[in-house]
Specification:
- The chain is an alpha/beta fold and 256 residues long.
- The chain has a single domain (12-249), classed as Spore Coat Polysaccharide Biosynthesis Protein SpsA, Chain A (Alpha-Beta Complex).
- It has helices spanning 37-48, 60-68, 83-94, 116-126, 142-145, 196-204, 209-214, 218-223, 243-252, and strands spanning 12-17, 31-32, 35-36, 53-57, 72-75, 102-105, 132-139, 152-155, 167-174, 185-195, 228-232.
- The strands form two sheets. It has a five-stranded mixed β-barrel. Strands 2-3 form a two-stranded antiparallel ribbon.
- It is globular.
- It starts with 11 loop residues before the first strand and ends with a helix.
């Protein structure tokens, strides 16, 4: 599969990947039906046909499997503190002249992601004047509302859930069930689209106090006065964080 650099106004999709996950060691290289998980994610990004795709690899073994599949990978410092830092490091290597004005941060642990969601994400940023865009999905499941592993979003415009096409503004992100008394919550889907200048500014900011409390780096942007647009979508991809998640991904992607 050959990747061709697309037009100058296209987004650049960056997939940060590292080997140091504690709950699932060597996660990007986990086998799913004969291919490493990071290759499945890369293929989903290519299928979206939004723009060039580059993997920000913390280790040569990740870069090797992507290049063997026909993709582009750049090596980034494994000691960088976050995925966003890895994305910016890759942007500077791959596109130092600033050809691509929008940057998509696609997590490397979403092998079942529907490519259309990346289009929804970029549309959310383009339809707003926000610095950053992300995705959310409305849920009435009380179990997920109280699950601290599922991040929730408080939106400035609450209600009227039938208007899915509307882009809304994020007020806060939390691991708690918010807002109080609501009939449902909005799950945060961990994909981001940045205006290039916004990403550059974001990685230069110090860690915020609420970011440390919630362990959510997007709160750094809000604390600094940056704006985050949320595009509501209908489907919810899942990330692979544990061996049970990996089994689930294998079942979903079962070719038989």
């Amino acid at each position: 599969m050959t990747q061709i650099r697309s037009a100058a106004d296209s987004p650049l999709i960056v997939i940060p990947a590292r080997l140091q996950a504690t709950r699932l060691p060597n996660k990007p290289l986990a086998d799913i039906h004969g291919r490493p998980m990071i290759v499945h994610v890369w293929q989903r990004a290519i299928a979206a046909n939004l723009g060039p795709v580059v993997v920000a690899a913390s280790d040569e073994s990740i870069a090797t499997v992507i290049r063997a599949a026909g993709g582009v990978a750049v090596l980034t410092d494994p000691d960088l503190p976050s995925g966003s830092d890895r994305v910016w490091a890759a942007v500077q290597q791959f596109d130092p002249t600033g050809t691509h004005p929008l940057i998509v941060n696609l997590q490397g642990d979403m092998p079942t992601l529907e490519p259309q969601l990346m289009h929804e994400l970029v549309a959310g940023l383009r339809q707003s004047d926000a610095d950053i865009a992300t995705l959310g999905v409305f849920s009435r499941d009380p179990d997920s509302a109280t699950n601290p592993n599922i991040v929730k979003i408080v939106l400035a415009q609450w209600g009227e859930w039938g208007e899915r096409e509307q882009v809304r503004r994020a007020l806060y992100f939390s691991r708690s069930a918010l807002p109080h008394g609501s009939a449902g919550v909005v799950h945060h889907l961990g994909l981001y689209a940045y205006r290039r200048a916004a990403l550059k500014r974001f990685v230069s900011l110090p860690e915020a106090a609420l970011e440390k409390v919630e362990k959510l780096e997007q709160l750094r942007a809000l604390a600094a006065g940056m704006t985050i647009a949320v595009k509501l979508v209908e489907t919810e991809p899942f990330g692979v964080d544990t061996p049970a998640d990996l089994d689930k991904a294998r079942a979903v992607l079962n070719p038989s």
